[in-house]
Amino acid sequence: MTTATLLSFAGLCLLLALMPGPDSFLVLRYSIGGTRPGVAAAVGVSIGSLFWAVVVALGVAALLEQSASAYRVVKIAGGLYLLYLGVRALLRRRAAGPAATGPVAASTGSAFGAGVLSCALNPKMGLFYLAVVPQFLDQVTFGSAMTLGAVEAVVALVVMGAFAVAASRLVALLRRPKVTERLETVSAGILAALGVGTLASAGGS
Description:
This protein is mostly helical. It has one domain (about 20-205). Helix content is about 85%, strand content about 0%. This is Threonine/homoserine/homoserine lactone efflux protein.
């Protein structure tokens, strides 16, 4: 595997990471509560992408391409999880009430776990690896697939981490209860909507 191949793959991964999606909205959701939860979610997303690298390296991801049922099951699981995260965030904000003077706190552990599961339950990541990795390799082996997976994970970590830091600092500049409450409500609503959309598309596929 040449340096040019790794750089080309990294460039493609950069474009993927910059595209808005469930992972970026998840990182935004936790970044509202502070830099540490946002970065923890970003780390979780990058670790979750390594799960798909392992799956592709083992050849299991081919099932998602060949089996509509397997793809639908993973998609439904991912949609339910996003819906759960969105609804839980909305309920926590409502429970905090109007007296809350800041964002509802989230632990770094829960943010990390949410990032891992969000990415690991996104079958589109598996199909991305399945479709793209062979284009950059003469022969797909466990080592070569994991190398490209590590590159994708690093790129995702850098992009999502930078996004988390920027978002948390922006929220800090707008540290007003009403602004924070609306941002949390909107981000939670987007997660729930993404979950509903994923479930709807899974049901129609």
